[in-house]
């Protein structure tokens, strides 16, 4: 007797590791990506340090904070058991948001809390504002200056089209100087105190600058506004800031230098200026650019002062008023004449 059996098609057995749904290849891929990106982040940090040897590498120094963030994010991703790349990207996004939010947590307000002037000094509020050449919102600029109510303000990228700002503020800021008439020197200084002397330079070894000096009301204080060249002209930028530093060191008395240096605190550019000028930087690490998305990433606007000038508060940002930079505002005590 014959017995027949029925059987369906026999499925081949899958060997371990052959499953298409196995997460192991994806995990290995994620770990490899994290490792490569970690190396790239560290290479950026190293590149910034190499700027001390060869100025062309200083462009990496401008982004040291971001390169460290990348390195840390992908190091964390590499150590994760899963979702490695996603973790790293999330850390980077959160980190960039934190960098951009930090300046807003201490934004400048007016009226500011009372502070007492040390004996023999006068408190002044100074403001440095790159108004941006593409910004034609005269009303917003004037309103932001009025809101912060500085005693002295340096205005950069301030072309002829913005002269209406000067006229609008003339009643409050009766003492004004500018170098708008010079090519590549679009700056102005407005003050509540009489200006005793002034000069401006555009075509010299240093960066475009405007200098104003005050009388005994401010103890002969000198204020300089400047706007340095930027990448890719790194060698020219280093020369400019070095020459400006040499000039500032020779000036007598209390000095304040502020403006757009197009250099971050981690760059050789700023270190060189600080050493050659003998000034100290008041702003610490405060991102001011780019401002239009309200999450600035780079600290390229700065306020420097000589030892005679005593900072009474941390430097703060104002509103951008249509500019791609946030202004810097700080109160300081300057010695007054007898």
Beta-strand fraction estimate: 15-25%
The chain-level structural class is alpha+beta
Q: Count of helices?
A: 8
Intertermini distance: 130 Å
**CATH homology superfamily of the largest domain:** Endonuclease/exonuclease/phosphatase
How many independent structural domains? 2
Biggest beta sheet summary: 7 strands, mixed
CATH structural architecture of the largest domain: 4-Layer Sandwich
* CATH fold-level label of the largest domain: Deoxyribonuclease I, Chain A
Uncertain stretches: 14-20
What is the chain-wise order of helices and strands?
A: HHHHEHEHEEEEEHEHEEEEE
Tell me the number of strands: 13
Structural description of this entry:
The protein has 338 residues and is an alpha+beta fold. Helix content is 33%, strand content 20%. It has eight helices and 13 strands. The strands form two sheets. Strands 1, 2, 3, 4, 11, 12 and 13 form a seven-stranded mixed sheet that branches. Strand 6 and strand 7 form a beta hairpin. Helix 1 runs antiparallel to helix 3 and helix 5 crosses helix 6. The radius of gyration is 27 Å and the shape is elongated.
